[in-house]
Amino acid sequence: MCRKVIQAEEGGVIEVWGDGTAIRNFTYVDDMVGAIYLLTQSDLKGSVNFGGEEYVTVEELAKTVIAVSGKDIRVQHVDGPVGVHSRNFSKARSHSLGWDTKVALREGIARTYAWIEEQVRKSRVELEG
């Protein structure tokens, strides 16, 4: 989503598959690294589900990325694979470790957006250079 917004022209449109009502949960990479480290230091065996409590629709995600970008961009919904409407899983085992996310969705998007924007810029420079 960040790359789509970065590459969109001011006043342009980004395409989003489906009607935007699918619900997702995103966890910032630093939080996941912390979760994995905590798990490696624990005695837990078997699978553990890690994820935050902040759920958003794909539409809300797109609008958040656009807001972070500062651009005036519209979302256009198109046919395409959307996956399951929502996923729900128990995080009791991750909570038993005392783990929770530290980075909220908007902050994670802001950090990710800045990083992807830099990668896109470098890529353009390499192609032009």
CATH names the topology as Rossmann fold
Number of domain modules: 1
Largest sheet, if any? Answer: 2 strands, parallel
Secondary-structure element order, N to C: HEEHEHEHH
What does this structure look like?
The protein contains five helices and four strands. The mean pLDDT is 92. The strands form two sheets. The protein has a two-stranded parallel ribbon. It is globular and about 50 Å long. The longest helix has 24 residues. It has one domain: 3-Layer(aba) Sandwich (Rossmann fold). The chain is of the alpha+beta class and 129 residues long. Helix 3 crosses helix 5.
Explain briefly what this protein structure is:
The chain is 46% helix and 12% strand.
Task: Spell out the blueprint of helices and strands.
Elements: H1 2-7, E1 13-17, E2 23-25, H2 29-40, E3 55-57, H3 58-69, E4 74-78, H4 92-96, H5 105-128
Parallel strand pairs: 1-4
Antiparallel strand pairs: 2-3
Which labels suit this protein?
129 residues; 4 strands; 5 helices; 12% strand; Rossmann fold; two-stranded antiparallel sheet; 46% helix; globular; two-stranded parallel sheet; alpha+beta
